[in-house]
Amino acid sequence: AHEKLEEGDVLVKVNGELLTQFAKLDDVLDSSVGGKVNLLVQRGGEDIEVELDVGDLHAITPDRFVSVAGAAFHNLSYQQARLFAVALEGNGVYCCEASGSFRFEGTENGWLVQTVDHKPTPDLDTFIEVMKGVPDRSRVVVTYKHLRDMHTLNTSIMLVDRHWHKHMRLAIRNDETGLWDFKDLAKPVPPQEPEPKKANFISMSGARHPHAVDVVRSFVRISASMPLKLDGFPKTRKIGFGLVIDAEKGLVVVSRAIVPYDMCDISVTIADSIIVDGKVVFMHPLQNYAIIKYDPSLVKAPVQTAKLAKDPIKQGEETIFFGFNQNLRPVVAKTAVTDITTVAIPASVSTPRYRAVNLDAITVDTSLSGQCGSGVLVREDGTVQALWMTYLGERSAHSGKDIEYHLGFGVPALLPVLDEVKSGGKPNLRILNLETQTVQMSQCRIMGVSEDWLERVEHEDPERHQLFMVRKVDAGHVSGLTEGDIILTLNGKLITRVSDMDMMYSNPVLEAVIVRKQQQMSLQVPTVPTSELETDRVVVFCGAILHRPHHAVRQQISKVHSDIYVSARLRGSPAYMYGLAPTNFIMAVNAVPTPDLESFVRETNKIPDNTYFRLKVMTFDNVPWVATMKKNEHYFPTVEFVKDG
Questions:
Q1: Which residue of 149, 172, 317, 549 sits 20 to 30 Å from the alpha carbon of 407, by its own alpha carbon?
Q2: Same domain, 176 and 102
Q3: Where does the PDZ-like domain lie (predicted)?
């Protein structure tokens, strides 16, 4: 019809027959596939006869797609081409699921990939050949357009993931069986060996405090990409900045709002020039920081180890705020500490995820503090007094967006852990499995704390007239403390600050003196090893992502119903279709109790494919129900991930 018909033409006859109904037109076209039809149209009152070839709609309807690097692609369909008035051929390969390496900014579908690694990809076959030659972990330039805006050519640099998503699979529609048959196309090309590169940091010559702003040489940009949504974390990509604490060993401290767990790919960018891979060394369960490591032999740049203060910063003290704004640009301002207060980041009710608790947070008197998610508070001589970090909070009930807090964290609290990591050890901390809140002297008196203890608090800590009350005890672990207890001492030390509790890190049991229901008592309080709190095994079954209840769940729930927690689910999967939702606990399979992942995998392996089975499920709010689900290994095979180190 191209160049033969125009918009506004009125169809009068087909093959000499007057037509007034679409059904008759459909019959004529369906019976003429591969042949020709003669049309009589009126254009501006003039009769015009044209002869058209009749094409096959099936030939321009995609019957195959390829999945690679976590995304899916097929040729542009006639339906989409007609809807957006674009040519069916030559406009690029259509990305029907923009995820994994191809998670472009904005919408998840509607993208037409034009080139990959500077090679054109006009159709699916060409795209497949191009992707076959792209090595794993390589960074390539991708250009693409969106169907809603074919005028704009977008350009991005993409990190190709062929290790979490190893298989490059072609799916072909089988009209006889009704299934899509899968075929592996090519094994991943091994990653190229990285080579050392040179770079220099920017100079901030106009700053008033040259030694303070020289801390820019201690900052590196951290990019984390998560292949699976674990621990309730809402994002699959995060970018921020980390502080280099040992340039010789490549150690960096970064917020856990950037690196939430260790099942992720971490890229470290030095001086906005050199990109190297990183890996997680340590994750603190309470204080919102992780320590990662990169290979310093690949970096020929004047990276500087940050000089960390050993004495805590004080309220009212003048300092210099150095941070990175939303444009990832460094900004600096002279300021003062307005407050240092013990806080707990608000919990996300709908989806529990990692949050910092029992934390002394620092706030400063500059508007830059709210604009910057990463940075430091630094003295004029360049000594870092506090980290400025992003803390992931609750999800807003009104906007549905995740709230982030920007607060300072004094570096003296980091030093014991940093020293052990620098010496080559891996800290195996123990913690009190509880969340506390501060109570003032007036409240303590009402709750039964004696006058002698109140006088001791005022005498020993003139700056902080406060004690700590147990707000919540984690579920799933034995604890001698209960909600409402006021902690007086631990191992004989008066507890008026969060740092006073640091003794818990190395003691399996603490001797505590508390006030409970206006009665003073002594008891032994066990601590919990942090190795039990991080996710180290994941099972993907029927599209449901399952693991042990992570720390945030135990912080918020009163009883852990089982060790099988639904963290997320894949769209279109049986778990999604049959209503198995995140925050559910699976307790039994076909009436057989499954208290842990081991028993769950054993029982589900007994279920034949394409058969129905029952799951006994408990919601987060203690509501039991039964899910009837049909197993589908063809499209959603069972996969297990186990941490190997």
A1: 549
A2: yes
A3: 59-137, 533-610
